[in-house]
Amino acid sequence: MRRALIAAVASLTVLGSVAATLPAQAAANPVPPTMFGLHVPGIANGVKPSVTYGTLRLWDSGVAWGQVEQSKGQYWWNGLDAAVGNGNLARANSMIVLGSTPTWAASNKKQGTYPYKGAASMPKNINDWKSWVTAVVSRYKGSVGAYQIWNEANLTNFWAGTPKQMATLTKEAYKIIKSIDPSASVVSASSTVRLTARYNSFFPAYLKALKKQGWPIDAVSVHTYPAGNEGPAARVKFIQKTQADMRKVGVPADRQLWDTEVNYGIVGPGSVPGRTIGGADAAAYVAQTYLDNIRLGVERSYWYFWNQADGRVGIVMNDGTPGAVGFQTVQRWLNGAFYACTTGAVNACNLADNTNPEVVVWATTGSGTYTVPAGATVQCNALNECSAVVPGSKVTIGSMPLWFGTADRNAQNQLPLVP
C-alpha cells in the first residue's frame, strides 16, 4: 500500500487543542516494513509468530558471540544458521547482535555473567573481535540486513569497558562489515534510557567517541522501556531526551534512531514494581509505540518479545493476545503509507490519498475532542474493533488510537468491518 500524501493535514480539526498543535511532520518516504521489529527467542527452534514483522533482532536466542565461537576459531553455526534462515522464511530483515565477549577471549572473566562469564569484558586481543566480525559477516553476506555492535553497553552487567573502547570496537566492526557487505547497516551499541545515571555516564561519551572515529555507524540505538508504572508518555520523553543528546553531540542527520528493545510494565528502576498490562491498554500501548515512532522520527522499534508469559514483561505478545492484535493492526494502518503528523492534546497522523480520507488520532495524556473528517465513514481501534461514524461528528479521543477512513480503505487494510 503505497499511498500518496494529501497536503491538507492542516485542515484536520482537533477541537480544544488547536492552539497546542505543532506543525505537521511529513514523510519523504513511506513507512517501511522494517519499522515493525520483533525479538523471537525461539526463532532458531522454529517458533513462528502469527503476526507479520519486518525485521528480527537476534538476541536472547542462543546466538551470542561466545555461543557461536565456543573456542578460538571454532564455530558452532547451527543455531545462528537456523535463526537467520527462519527469519528469512518470514521475510524479515534480520539484525545480529555481535557481542558479547566469549569467556575464552575476555580480558577479565569476572566482568559479566550473561550469557556466560566474562561477557561484559573488553576482549583481551582486539584481533579476536576482528576475526569474529569477519567470520559472521562473510557467512551471512546478503542474508542479514544489519549488525548491532553490543547490547545495553551502558550497563556494567553487559559492558564493563569504557565508552571509548566500545567506540573502538564499533569502528573496527564498521570497517569489516562495509568491506564485505556494503549494503548492511551498522548499528551502535544500545543504551537503556530509563536508568538515568548509567545512561548519562555512557551514552553522550560514546557518541563523542564515535564522532572522533568519524561516525562509523548507520544508526544510533537506545532501549526505551519506561519505568514499571509508566506508559507511552514516558517513552516519548525518553525519545526526546535521546534526540536532544544526539543534536548536542552533532550526530549527522542521516544517522537514524532505532529503538531496539521496548515493552512496558517491567520492574524498576529501583523499587518501582512491575505490572501486567492486558486488554485494551496493551493494544493501545503497542499501537502508540509505532505511531509515536513516525511522529517523532524513530526509524525502527523491536518489540521485546514474542513469547509465552513468564513475568518479565508487562505486555505479553503471543498468539491472540491484545498486544499481538495491536501490533498487527498498527502495521495494517501504517505499513507502506506516506504520512504527515501533528502533535497536540490530540495527535493526528494523516495517511490519506487523493480520494480516501484516512487518519489515526490518539492522546498521549488525557483526552481531547476530534471532528470526524469529511468522507470518513468507519472508525477502528487498535483491537481491530470497527464501527460506523458520521463525518463532522465529534468524538472523544483518549489513549486508544482510532483510525478513521472509508469502508473500501478499511477492507484494503484487511480490517474487517463490525456490523
Please explain how this structure is put together.
This protein is an alpha/beta fold. It folds into two domains: 1-30 and 339-419, Immunoglobulin-like, CATH 2.60.40; 32-335, TIM Barrel. 29% of the residues lie in helices and 17% in strands. It contains nine helices and 20 strands. The protein has helices at 65-68, 78-89, 126-140, 163-180, 196-212, 232-249, 279-296, 322-334, 407-412, and strands spanning 25-26, 36-38, 55-58, 69-71, 74-75, 93-97, 146-148, 185-187, 191-192, 219-223, 256-262, 300-303, 340-342, 347-350, 359-362, 368-371, 378-381, 386-388, 394-397, 402-405. The protein has a nine-stranded parallel sheet, with helices on one face. A seven-stranded antiparallel sheet has the order 1-13-14-15-20-17-18. A two-stranded antiparallel ribbon has the order 4-5. Strand 7, helix 4 and strand 8 (185-187) form a beta-alpha-beta unit. Helix 4 (163-180) packs across helix 5, helix 6 packs parallel to helix 7 and helix 7 runs parallel beside helix 8. The longest helix is centred in the middle third of the chain and has 18 residues, at 163-180. Residues 1-21 and 415-419 have low confidence and may be disordered.
